[in-house]
Write a structure and sequence with these properties.
- It is globular, with a radius of gyration of 18 Å.
- Helix 2 packs across helix 3.
- By secondary structure, it is of the alpha/beta class.
- 39% of the residues lie in helices and 18% in strands.
């Protein structure tokens, strides 16, 4: 477990940009904790090429990928965010980016160079999906994809790939062979344990290195965490007041 993320109830602002818009909020602190866990997840060096996925749709993988990438970029790391979900891409919508030229164009050899959107946030660049292709898995399996990832790894401290859920299509399993590790997203109260276990087994069959899991959308008031959270932060605040 890399960390937990509390459920956002305010829909006024996009939840995908909360870490950027409100870096001191409790939601953002969740991702700072996860950031530390990711950076310390390897004894030698932090993983450079990271795939983020979930087991099923609507578990918060894209929201988690974007917020984690922003959080690590805020730690003075040069970060690249890649929308490798070539079926239901969303990163271009979140950052309001043009998507006529992206990952699919380059992998299908319709573009000679990969189009990178610079500075979508501080220290953060992005590659959008491009037009939805008829053969996403084949494109991600191509030697061109492997070479692209190797080339980009020399330009950034960390690269995050947002991919489709592993139990819906094979795209994520294909890409998982080209990265340093995988982060799994599970949604509190929604992701069934047996489904999560099935996804773990699928990843295990291709010898994926699992960095860890993020438990997403925890409703503090409906869980046992609420009492602990209030008690911990009340005592922390009181101790801090005594010192000051």
């Amino acid at each position: 477990m890399l960390g937990t993320v509390t459920k956002q109830v305010d829909d006024v602002e996009p939840v995908e940009k909360q870490v950027m818009l409100h870096p001191s909020a409790h939601f953002s602190e969740n991702f700072k904790t996860i950031r530390t866990a990711v950076l310390l997840s390897s004894a030698d060096a932090p993983p450079k090429r990271v795939m983020v996925t979930s087991m099923l749709p609507e578990e918060g993988k894209t929201t988690s990928t974007i917020n984690l990438a922003i959080s690590i970029a805020q730690a003075d790391k040069r970060v690249l965010l890649v929308d490798a979900d070539l079926r239901k891409p969303r990163i271009h919508r979140v950052f309001e980016l043009e998507n006529a030229n992206g990952l699919s164009n380059f992998l299908a050899r319709a573009a000679e160079t990969i189009h990178i959107h610079k500075n979508v946030a501080a220290n953060l660049d992005a590659i959008t999906s491009g037009p939805i292709p008829p053969n996403p898995s084949e494109l991600l399996l191509s030697p061109r994809a492997e070479q692209m990832i190797q080339d980009l790894a020399g330009q950034y401290d960390m690269i995050f790939f947002d991919t489709p859920p592993v139990l819906t299509v094979s795209d994520g399993l294909t890409l998982s062979k080209l990265v340093d590790g995988v982060i799994l997203i599970a949604r509190a109260g929604k992701t069934p344990y047996d489904v999560f276990e099935k996804g773990l087994n699928a990843l295990g069959q291709v010898n994926v290195k699992l960095i860890g899991t993020i438990l997403n959308a925890i409703d503090m008031k409906k869980s046992g965490y609420y009492y602990y959270y209030n008690r911990y932060y009340s005592s922390y605040y009181e101790e801090d007041q005594k010192k000051s």
